[in-house]
């Protein structure tokens, strides 16, 4: 952006940045989502059996022991395919709206200042 001398990002730059940040967020938060899903299943089973659920740390260790490290990243591709475009659309729409409203406000202020009648004191 600075290389081309602009102060605001272009649409494709915002879209790409949103997609990349969405991908990073999806990868970093997926293990927690996997654990959350396992906890929800375990809570349902615990209610039926009248037992207490395990702690989150114990859940992580159980998943790791039973299925390996890759189990914490199960469903990665569908999650990235869902989250990356959603973040790209959100960030690029936000940036586009911010630019459009900024231009509108500048034009509106310019118009209202030229229409104001000076007050004599």
UniProtKB/TrEMBL annotation:
Gene Ontology terms describing biological process: mitochondrial transmembrane transport
Homology family: Belongs to the mitochondrial carrier (TC 2.A.29) family.
Gene Ontology CC annotations of this record: mitochondrial inner membrane
PANTHER family to which the protein is assigned, alphabetical: FI19922P1-RELATED (PTHR45760:SF2)
Membrane topology: Multi-pass membrane protein
Entry keyword set: Membrane, Mitochondrion, Mitochondrion inner membrane, Repeat, Transmembrane, Transmembrane helix, Transport
Coiled coil regions, renumbered to chain: none
Protein name, as recorded: Mitochondrial carrier protein
Translocase among keywords: no
């Amino acid at each position: 952006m600075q290389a081309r001398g602009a102060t605001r990002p272009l649409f494709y730059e915002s879209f790409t940045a949103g997609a990349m940040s969405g991908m990073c967020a999806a990868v970093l938060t997926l293990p927690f989502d996997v654990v959350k899903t396992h906890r929800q299943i375990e809570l349902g089973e615990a209610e039926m059996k009248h037992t207490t659920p395990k702690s989150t740390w114990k859940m992580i260790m159980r998943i790791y022991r039973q299925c390996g490290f890759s189990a914490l990243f199960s469903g990665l591709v569908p999650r990235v395919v869902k989250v990356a475009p959603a973040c790209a659309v959100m960030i690029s729409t936000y940036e586009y709206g911010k630019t459009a409203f900024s231009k509108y406000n500048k034009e509106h202020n310019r118009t209202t200042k030229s229409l104001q009648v000076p007050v004599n004191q």
